[in-house]
Write a structure and sequence with these properties.
Helix content is 36%, strand content 19%. It is an alpha/beta fold. Strands 3-2-1-4-5-6-7-8-9 form a nine-stranded mixed beta sheet, sandwiched between helices. Helix 4 (40-50) runs parallel beside helix 5 (83-94), helix 4 runs parallel beside helix 10 and helix 6 packs across helix 7.
């Protein structure tokens, strides 16, 4: 690291668990962020400020006035601009010393396999089950850790799915891809603005812990947040031996849900 980087990241370097080695791991890492909306905004901003060396931001939408209540990557002046490009501008404004790649596209399976294969960690900040399952399949195939978050109304959830670990479930163990789940859109259901900040920031924290090799991740645990009472619930999630995505000899025979 040069002098500017040593100063910029000095508060991380002061932490014994991170130090220079951990910060260098972050600078050498690449994060793939799927979605530059409510969750992707705080997640990407914290990744950029914390010094993830390369951030790939994927979103096919444009900035709309209704987004600005919660999507803090964007500004009123950027209404009508692609979210990926708007997000790139915000990330480089907070940290010009990193690389930010803006992709205005809806990545299919083949494209996701390519993008995930280049990433150190993936953050799923999307808003629909089809995308979440596609991202999960790519992460399992490429053995890249996935940090998944979701928020609707006053409810949030976050977990980590780490296919590098034989005991870690995948997203499909929790929400089987052959079962039909109804997508709940913010446009029809509403969303409490600060809640996406809470969950998105936690996604960044989990991603940074993974690449810096610090602490224990949320792999095997699902955190649920009731924003009305600010109450957290932790649910254990075991690997499903019969999962069509990650099932195999190493999968556990237990039920997907275990109390902790």
């Amino acid at each position: 690291m040069n002098d500017d980087q040593l100063l910029r990241y000095s508060r991380h370097i002061l932490l014994d668990e991170i130090g220079i080695e951990g910060q260098q791991r972050a600078l050498a890492a690449s994060a793939l962020v799927i979605g530059a909306g409510g969750l992707g905004s705080p997640a990407a901003l914290y990744l950029a400020s914390a010094g993830i060396g390369r951030i790939v931001l994927v979103d096919d939408d444009v900035v709309d006035l209704t987004n600005l209540q919660r999507q803090i990557l964007h500004t009123s002046e950027r209404i009508g601009q692609p979210k990926a490009e708007s997000g790139r501008a915000s990330l480089l404004a907070i940290n010009p010393g990193i690389e930010v790649v803006a992709l205005r596209e809806r990545a299919g399976d083949a494209r996701l396999a390519e993008l995930v294969g280049q990433a150190s960690v993936v953050l799923d900040c999307s808003d629909n089950f089809a995308t979440r399952h596609a991202v999960n399949r790519a992460c399992v195939a490429q053995r890249v850790p996935l940090v998944s978050g979701a928020v609707i109304r006053f409810d949030g959830q976050i977990s980590v799915f780490d296919p590098r670990r034989d005991d870690s479930p995948c997203y499909s163990c929790l929400f089987p891809q052959d079962q039909r789940f109804e997508d709940a859109a913010c446009s029809s259901m509403g969303v409490f603005a600060p809640l996406v900040g809470v969950i998105g920031a936690m996604q960044a924290a989990e991603a940074l812990k993974l690449v810096m090799q610090v602490g224990q991740s949320l792999a095997g645990r699902l955190l649920l947040l009731d924003g009305r009472g600010m109450e957290w619930t932790s649910i254990g999630v075991a690997r499903n031996a019969g999962c069509p995505v990650c099932g195999g000899e190493a999968a556990q025979e237990a039920s997907p849900f275990t109390a902790i």
